[in-house]
């Protein structure tokens, strides 16, 4: 495919106008002012449009589209115990498949090309993700409230089989991470064994960390004064390439460890605000040179996958919380949404509009009223744009969404089946 006469946001987030971008196979092959030689196939007229890297959602639970709007105006523990856990206990593979497919459709609609996911019924998730054409770092979440060894848990067996059968599947679009749910849903033996097993296979780790003040402080009571980050580090979890979701209540010593261990922090601003969990100290994390990415969390606590909305809240929540209008810049926000997210997923050749990188790209219509005028494009993308401005999403050089149409997803059936699965579960509660 060749994009012609299109504005681009280049790898340094600078605007270049009237450009040509050529895609061959799954990579960006050419970027320049002149129409390149050779056959690039379909031509795309880019007048009035902007081409940039797609977004990398660094923390989600995709099948929870089924629970969108189901547990509102509740404190976190009431939300979990009264609404989420009872609903999830009735899930089956069919419901998870369609919930995941709906999440992939919504993600592609909003420019998300890849997601870091944690859930269960993962084989059904793999099927939906593969069929959609999206990318995903998928982990089967592990919890253990017993004295059983990790290796005796059904969840571990499922996690192990998932890795052995699907890691780097679909030409590398699907990667399998190890997913320890959290400190408070496991015991030290489980955590240690998870760390050792993950290290032995060279996988990534995905874990919830210090999402709420209660979680953070209760951990210190349970673990002899250690915070969740200190506890996980002591038991070897952070010796692996780790994405730590939330990190709202991490302390200065935690940040030292996060930096030393090269942990990616996945900030989930809308979910954290909606559940009154707090605001992650993104400015301080960035000041320390920590890789900060952006996640949506699940739509049951968000309630959408509108990533441009997430980016705006990511930027402005820190400005208010830390009383500093310069706290998080548009370039830092776009970096978190693209390059940092791809890095956290271990996708080193993704997240940039640059020759040789994977063609994971989105097109925005920049001739809409909310984009005019353009004093600085990065400011408009973060503060003025909306999800509806995204009119094309491409993954590995294949257009998956364009002008309201899905190339790989039967959206009408997906909506019908998701509603049907949801009503079936509600009838059992």
Automatic annotation (TrEMBL):
Gene3D superfamilies: Metal-dependent hydrolases (3.20.20.140), Urease, subunit C, domain 1 (2.30.40.10). This is Amidohydrolase. It comes from Clostridium aminobutyricum. It comes from the Bacteria. GO terms for molecular function: hydrolase activity, acting on carbon-nitrogen (but not peptide) bonds. The keyword Nucleotide-binding does not apply. Transmembrane segments: none annotated. Residues 51-399 form the Amidohydrolase-related domain. InterPro entries: Amidohydro-rel, Metal-dep_hydrolase_composite, Metal_Hydrolase, MTA/SAH_deaminase. Pfam families: Amidohydro_1 (PF01979). Keywords: Hydrolase.
């Amino acid at each position: 495919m060749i994009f012609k006469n299109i504005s681009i946001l280049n790898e340094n987030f600078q605007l270049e106008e009237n450009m040509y971008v050529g895609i061959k196979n799954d990579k960006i092959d050419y970027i320049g002012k002149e129409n390149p030689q050779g056959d690039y196939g379909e031509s795309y007229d880019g007048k009035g449009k902007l081409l940039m890297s797609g977004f990398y959602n660094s923390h989600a639970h995709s099948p929870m589209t089924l629970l969108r709007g189901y547990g509102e105006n509740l404190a976190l523990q009431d939300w979990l115990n009264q609404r989420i856990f009872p609903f999830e206990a009735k899930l089956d593979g069919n419901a998870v498949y369609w919930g995941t497919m709906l999440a992939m459709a919504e993600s592609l609609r909003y420019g998300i090309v890849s997601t870091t996911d944690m859930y269960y019924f993962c084989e059904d998730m793999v099927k939906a993700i593969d069929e959609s054409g999206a990318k995903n770092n998928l982990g089967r979440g592990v919890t253990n409230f017993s004295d059983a060894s990790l290796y005796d848990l059904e969840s571990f067996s499922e996690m192990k089989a998932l890795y052995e059968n699907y890691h780097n599947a679909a030409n590398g679009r699907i990667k399998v991470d190890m997913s320890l749910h959290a400190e408070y849903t496991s015991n030290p033996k489980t955590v240690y064994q998870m760390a050792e097993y993950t290290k032995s296979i060279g996988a990534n780790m995905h874990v919830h960390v210090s999402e709420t003040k209660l979680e953070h402080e209760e951990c210190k009571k349970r673990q002899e004064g250690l915070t969740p980050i200190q506890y996980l580090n002591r038991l070897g979890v952070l010796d692996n390439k780790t994405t730590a979701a939330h990190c709202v209540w991490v302390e200065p010593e935690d940040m030292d460890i996060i930096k030393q261990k090269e942990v990616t922090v996945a900030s989930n601003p809308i979910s954290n605000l909606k559940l009154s969990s707090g605001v992650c100290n993104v400015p301080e994390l960035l000041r320390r040179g920590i890789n900060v990415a952006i996640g949506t969390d699940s739509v049951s606590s968000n309630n959408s996958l509108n990533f441009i909305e997430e980016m705006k809240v990511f930027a402005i929540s820190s400005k208010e919380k830390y009383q500093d209008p310069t706290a998080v810049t548009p370039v830092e926000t776009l970096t978190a949404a693209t390059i940092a997210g791809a890095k956290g997923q271990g996708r080193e050749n993704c997240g940039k509009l640059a020759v040789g990188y994977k063609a994971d790209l989105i097109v925005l219509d920049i001739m809409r009223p909310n984009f005019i005028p353009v004093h600085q494009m990065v400011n408009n993308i973060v503060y003025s744009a909306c999800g509806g401005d995204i009119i094309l999403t491409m993954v590995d050089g294949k257009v998956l969404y364009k002008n309201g149409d899905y190339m790989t997803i039967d959206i009408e059936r997906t909506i019908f089946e998701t509603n049907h699965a949801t009503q079936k579960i509600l009838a059992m509660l």
